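Q: I'm building a small set of examples for a reading group on sequence design. Run inverse folding on the following structure and report the sequence directly after it, with nothing in between.
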């Protein structure tokens, strides 16, 4: 039975009731409650079902380590699964539903798995459902997929907003307990910039719960004292509801702030902090461990420290009659707290032969203590009914049954070492306290080999108050000194008083000393239903590596990540292997420490900002003149310009015929424009491109190809030499950022000795193509620059002013017609576009879109990286061996191109295709099939208005040797037939583009 206690609950406001929904019924809590504390006060003991066997599950912990009380939170656009009831504060309008059951929490069909558990041992999914294959596909797989996963998947668009925040600090402290606050005060007094993160809504940690006195102040008073002193330091920032989620290289830390989970408002719900810190202090505390006994997962079995938390912080009695079972001193504090609250503690079961001062204090209050005993079994199904105790040796079986409705267990403490371990910090095994703790001489190190993370408090195993405070002070002083700050005076010694400073060390109970029926459903991992017997089975089947055992049994996976199950699992594995725990090792701790929302990871990148659309200076004009758009990389480009009552195909045909017949206008601003500058620029580009660029003369252009290390084509474009030391490299629309990064990677990691600088200027220039037989006349009408054939030859460029606008004009062509590309500052792009339209009106100038461009380039047989390449194509495959230099000693991909596989004659090679019917266009990506096998595929296919029939390009095995062959392309029951032809369909000699 659970209920409110009148004289406890320092975090709740009894004058402010809060109503919320749980599983369709109204529950009333108090302001400051978590879902878990409110449900406990309402006597809701069962809060979910386990993943594998659907066993009843209750609240075990009071913080982020909670494995059971996971909720489907919210509705509609605010629905989110797997939210911890122990860390989620209630608010009016909150809706929560328990998980992993059907049709209801009390009556769950999946509970049959519990009765069939002998058929689902560890690793059963690796051994079963193999044969027959038809049964796996049609029977087993659909069932498993339906039952897989925790919680439900949201079906509606997220209604909330999220954001990033960037912070830079000298010292970051993670953990706002007494150790964190002491460290923040000490470091702040040095003048260092300090940021402290605390994941809960309040500071103080265990000091808000345990009886302790520091410098004459009790725990809450001392926390208030520290906060008051810190608030006077402008260089110290404190954040609650903010978790230190992960530590990465070079002092980079992710913080996760839950801004409005407790009080929904029209501001961002979560904030992802991206923090750079010179030094990091982890004061993340320690987690209490569970104990191994049969029925330790029944609702009502809780961590002793959690029982104490619910009494002291929320004024909730987890039970009216609680049995405490422990192997260390700390659980006695729970017994004393329960007694002070007027609750019954019929028995304390202590595995140790004798207790300390706290045990004597309990006995004086009339609490029965049984040393050298253990819990054999908890009786009950959906709640605790009684416990059976036995001798610690297990000899003779159960010796007594004690009625109770709650069990408070304590198996010792494990320092929270996750953040320390994220970035390579090593651990030591503390035999006395049966725990792994950070090794101070092997911390996470930066690029200079210096440690940048310092652990303090109970996070290093300092479980006594005085040791905890001292370690925090020393950590702060060390961090301050390492960031160039120092404190003039030594810290004054602290006057610490607690009921008992006796050693907290637990007696470690290995499996061979365990109670008689330990192996009958004794649980290590409550969330994943991993039993002691599962780990023992893994050991028998040869899984000696802890990482292999983890994956075989699923212990410590999902949201738990080993917080409660890690040490006990290691102990069982070590005992089964006859090895010591440190020899077995630990599993890998990976960020985040506890789950963070996908919304926080995305930040503001949702809806229209999910992938921001880049627009050219002419975009608005295009939209107002009938343009339909297509996405190309991050840009939107005009696909075609539709006139009244015109179909898309009609518009494309009109644009092509107008351009080839007179003059067309095209927005090419999205093409990448990268400046490469420096004395070694030519040498650098010779290494980047497959052909020579260093021999290019200023004022001239050259088409170039880039390959990756394997010899596969990755980008292409025209390179212009602006002067002796400066080149302008054009890339594909999707390649500008990628190729710039590619250049920088090679410059910074391989060729750092080259005197070269790069800059991506893609968005600084508008580039407009004027193409067609009358293109020169249009430019001459604007005046200002000589664009005659004699002055501006094909593959050349000139600088000057066109119609009074500073411009650079290139003579390059992707349409096969006389063509000029005019680059002007982006701010002048729309003006030039309008001037060109006016000057070209006499020639019926026609804007054309990307599809018309692609058809025209297809008619010319020009390749497009991405269409005619798929990451496995070389320049030789595309008939472009002429662009691969035989003179250069080296370039990226040269050795890859020389591999026998890439020089074989039967590789897929680029060819043209002409359908046997002039009305039949080949389907996109259709495969050519011969003798039942695919021998290639269509890469581009169009209807050519210029030629009056369909055309296509394809990559076909040995294509160069198959000219004239007729190939078959079966698609959706219909076979299309086409003849292999030269891929250049129009003006093979290039006369049209060089007039």
């Amino acid at each position: 039975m659970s209920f409110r206690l009148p004289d406890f609950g320092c975090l709740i406001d009894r004058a402010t009731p809060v109503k919320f929904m749980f599983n369709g019924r109204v529950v009333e809590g108090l302001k400051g409650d978590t879902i878990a504390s409110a449900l406990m006060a309402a006597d809701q003991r069962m809060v979910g079902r386990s993943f594998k066997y659907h066993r009843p599950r209750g609240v075990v912990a009071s913080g982020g380590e909670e494995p059971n009380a996971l909720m489907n939170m919210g509705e509609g656009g605010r629905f989110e699964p797997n939210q911890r009831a122990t860390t989620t504060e209630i608010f009016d309008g909150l809706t929560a539903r328990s998980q992993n059951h059907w049709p209801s929490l009390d009556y769950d069909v999946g509970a049959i798995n519990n009765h069939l558990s002998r058929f689902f041992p560890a690793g059963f999914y690796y051994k079963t459902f193999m044969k027959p294959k038809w049964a796996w596909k049609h029977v087993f797989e659909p069932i498993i997929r339906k039952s897989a996963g925790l919680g439900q998947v949201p079906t509606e668009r997220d209604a909330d907003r999220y954001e990033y925040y960037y912070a830079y600090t000298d010292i970051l402290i993670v953990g706002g307990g007494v150790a964190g606050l002491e460290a923040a005060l000490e470091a702040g007094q040095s003048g260092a910039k300090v940021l402290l993160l605390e994941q809960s809504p309040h500071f103080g940690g265990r000091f808000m719960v345990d009886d302790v006195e520091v410098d004459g102040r009790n725990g809450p008073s001392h926390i208030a004292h520290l906060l008051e002193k810190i608030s006077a330091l402008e260089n110290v920032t404190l954040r609650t509801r903010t978790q230190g989620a992960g530590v990465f290289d070079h002092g980079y830390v992710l913080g996760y702030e839950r801004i409005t989970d407790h009080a929904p408002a029209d501001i961002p719900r979560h904030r992802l902090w991206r923090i750079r810190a010179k030094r990091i202090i982890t004061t993340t505390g320690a987690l209490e461990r569970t104990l191994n006994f049969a029925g330790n997962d029944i609702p009502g079995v809780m961590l002793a420290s959690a029982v104490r938390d619910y009494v002291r912080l929320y004024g909730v009695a987890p039970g009216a009659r609680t049995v405490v079972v422990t192997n260390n001193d700390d659980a006695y504090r729970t017994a004393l707290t329960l007694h002070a609250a007027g609750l019954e503690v019929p028995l304390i079961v202590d595995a140790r032969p004798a207790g300390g001062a706290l045990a004597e204090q309990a006995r004086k209050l009339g609490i029965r203590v049984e040393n050298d005993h253990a819990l054999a079994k908890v009786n009950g199904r959906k709640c605790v009914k009684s416990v059976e105790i036995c001798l610690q040796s297990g000899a003779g079986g159960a010796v007594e049954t004690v009625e109770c409705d709650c069990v408070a267990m304590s198996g010792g403490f494990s320092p929270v070492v996750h953040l320390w371990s994220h970035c390579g910090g090593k651990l030591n095994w503390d035999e006395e306290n049966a725990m792994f703790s950070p090794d101070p001489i092997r911390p996470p190190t930066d690029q200079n080999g210096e440690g940048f993370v310092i652990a303090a408090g109970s996070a290093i195993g300092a479980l006594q108050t005085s040791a905890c405070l001292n370690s925090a002070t020393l950590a702060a002083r060390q961090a301050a000194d390492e960031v160039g700050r120092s404190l003039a005076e030594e810290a004054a010694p602290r006057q610490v008083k607690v009921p008992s400073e006796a050693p907290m060390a637990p007696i470690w109970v290995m499996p061979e000393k365990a109670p008689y029926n330990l192996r009958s459903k004794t649980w290590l991992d409550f969330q994943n239903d991993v039993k002691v017997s599962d780990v023992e089975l893994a050991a028998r089947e040869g899984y000696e590596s802890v990482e292999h055992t983890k994956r075989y049994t699923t212990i410590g996976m999902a949201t738990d990540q080993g917080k409660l199950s890690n040490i006990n699992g290691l102990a069982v594995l070590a005992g089964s292997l006859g090895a010591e725990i440190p020899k077995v090792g630990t599993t890998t701790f990976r960020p985040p420490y506890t789950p963070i929302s996908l919304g926080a990871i995305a930040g503001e990148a949702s809806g229209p900002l999910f992938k921001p659309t880049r627009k050219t200076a002419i975009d608005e004009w295009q939209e107002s003149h009938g343009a339909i758009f297509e996405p190309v990389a991050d840009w939107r480009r005009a696909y075609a310009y539709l006139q009244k009552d015109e179909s898309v195909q009609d518009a494309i045909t009109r644009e092509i015929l107008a351009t080839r017949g007179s003059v067309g206008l095209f927005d090419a601003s999205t093409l990448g424009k990268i400046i490469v500058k420096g004395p070694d620029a030519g040498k650098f580009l010779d290494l980047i491109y497959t052909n020579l660029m260093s021999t290019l003369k200023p004022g001239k252009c050259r088409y170039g190809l880039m390959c990756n290390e394997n010899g596969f084509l990755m980008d292409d474009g025209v390179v212009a030499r602006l002067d002796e030391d400066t080149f302008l490299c054009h890339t594909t629309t999707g390649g500008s950022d990628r190729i710039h990064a590619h250049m920088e990677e090679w410059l910074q990691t391989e060729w750092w000795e080259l005197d070269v600088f790069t800059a991506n200027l893609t968005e600084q220039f508008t580039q407009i193509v004027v193409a067609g037989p009358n293109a020169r006349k249009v430019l001459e009408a604007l005046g200002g620059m000589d664009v005659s054939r004699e002055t501006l030859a094909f593959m050349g460029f000139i600088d000057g002013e066109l119609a009074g606008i500073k411009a650079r004009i290139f003579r390059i062509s992707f349409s096969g017609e006389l063509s000029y590309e005019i680059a002007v500052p982006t701010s002048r792009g729309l003006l030039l576009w309008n001037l060109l339209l006016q000057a070209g009106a006499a020639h019926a100038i026609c804007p054309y879109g990307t599809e018309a461009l692609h058809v025209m380039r297809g008619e010319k047989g020009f390749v497009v990286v991405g269409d005619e390449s798929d990451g496995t194509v070389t320049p030789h495959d595309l008939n472009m061996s002429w662009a691969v230099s035989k003179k250069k000693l080296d370039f990226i991909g040269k050795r890859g191109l020389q591999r026998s596989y890439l020089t074989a004659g039967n590789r897929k090679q680029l060819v043209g295709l002409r359908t046997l019917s002039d009305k039949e266009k080949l389907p996109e990506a259709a495969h050519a099939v011969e003798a039942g096998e695919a021998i290639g595929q269509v890469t581009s296919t169009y209807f050519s208005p210029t030629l009056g029939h369909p055309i296509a390009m394809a990559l076909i095995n040995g294509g160069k040797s198959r000219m004239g062959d007729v190939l078959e392309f079966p698609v959706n029951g219909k076979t299309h037939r086409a003849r292999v032809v030269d891929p250049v369909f129009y003006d093979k000699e290039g006369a049209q583009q060089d007039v």
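Residues 454 and 478 are 9 Å apart (CA to CA).
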